[in-house]
Specification:
It is found in: Membrane. The protein is of the alpha+beta class and 298 residues long. It folds into two domains: 155 residues, TspO/MBR protein (Ferritin); 103 residues, no CATH class. It is 43% helix and 22% strand. A hairpin with a 2-residue loop joins strand 9 and strand 10. The radius of gyration is 25 Å and the shape is elongated. About 7% of the residues have low confidence.
Length: 298
């Protein structure tokens, strides 16, 4: 292969992979936060599989684009085919922005229909120049077809049949000061409780596991400050689940769900008395890589 063609191949693959890299800026923050919380169908693949699949698909796209490019940009059909190819790359990135960035499965489904049509148009345009280039895009359109069905299923599971409004199963929430708050917005998110401020959540990294997480800097203990430091961190090989509870029993404690910087935290507070002192234990639980991370401090 000539050096000029090798350079073209590298550029074509890098440009294709770049579309995926841009998308990860919107995907990564939502994987452990918003995406972990929404309802998903039983056939939803594990989160780890998407990275390798898309890396391979973008590489195949780059090779296909190279096969067309090396035919010569002086040809009108080559220019048209590559223009359509670049257009579908933009639509590919835009889907990540809408679905993960804007948290809009409905809007993303509409967008992925246009993406699918753009991929089909690219395959048709490529086939007129290089059949191999067209065949290299076949896995791509098949995967996007599956992704479109998955997108539609997620949209339906998290929406009412006749609109975009998410079904709210709990209309009010009791705050720590015994006041009640309601839900606002299309996603049924609760208004912040009085005194709740994400800026008061401090970032820390566990030295043993290397896991970075946040905890509430201001802990409502009545007599003492935090004495158990650093927090005890456990990695549980199970999917994250959080059920809010309001001190039904002293042993169970009080559990509240918080969203801080696009990550869900399940905060459980248990208060016990011993030897004339009151001890309050806090557990901050959150999802990471299909596992549950639990940090405790007293």
């Amino acid at each position: 292969m000539e050096i000029n063609n090798i350079l073209k191949l590298i550029i074509a693959i890098v440009v294709s992979e770049l579309a995926g890299i841009i998308g990860t800026f919107f995907i990564t923050p939502s994987i452990s936060g918003w995406y972990a919380e929404i309802a998903k169908p039983a056939f939803n693949p594990p989160a780890w599989i998407f990275g390798p699949v898309w890396t391979i698909l973008f590489a195949l796209m780059g090779i296909a684009a190279f096969l067309i490019w090396k035919k010569g940009l002086n040809r009108r059909d080559v220019k048209i085919a590559l223009s359509i190819f670049l257009g579908q790359l933009v639509l590919n990135t835009l889907w990540s922005v809408i679905f993960f960035g804007l948290h809009s499965p409905g809007g993303a489904f509409i967008e992925i229909v246009f993406l699918w049509l753009a991929i089909l148009a690219t395959i048709i345009a490529f086939a007129k120049i290089s059949e191999l280039a067209a065949w290299l895009l076949l896995p791509y359109i098949l995967w996007v077809s599956f992704a479109g069905y998955l997108n539609y299923s997620i949209w339906q599971l998290n929406s009412l049949v006749n609109g975009w409004q998410t079904t709210c199963i709990q209309e009010t929430k009791l705050c720590s000061d015994d006041s009640y708050i309601g839900r606002t917005g299309l996603k049924c998110e609760f208004t912040a409780c009085p005194g709740e401020n994400d800026d008061l959540w401090r970032m820390t990294t566990d030295n043993k596991t290397g896991i970075t997480f946040q905890y509430s800097e201001t802990l409502p203990t009545e007599y003492i400050h935090v004495v158990d430091w650093p927090p005890q961190v456990q990695i549980l090989n199970e999917l994250f689940a959080c059920t809010e509870a309001w001190s039904e029993t002293a042993r169970a404690g009080k559990t509240m769900k918080r969203m801080v910087n696009d990550r869900i935290y399940c905060v459980t507070r248990v208060t016990e008395g011993a030897a004339g002192s009151i001890y309050t234990q806090y557990a901050h639980t959150f999802p990471k890589d299909n596992k549950t991370i639990n940090s405790k401090l007293t």
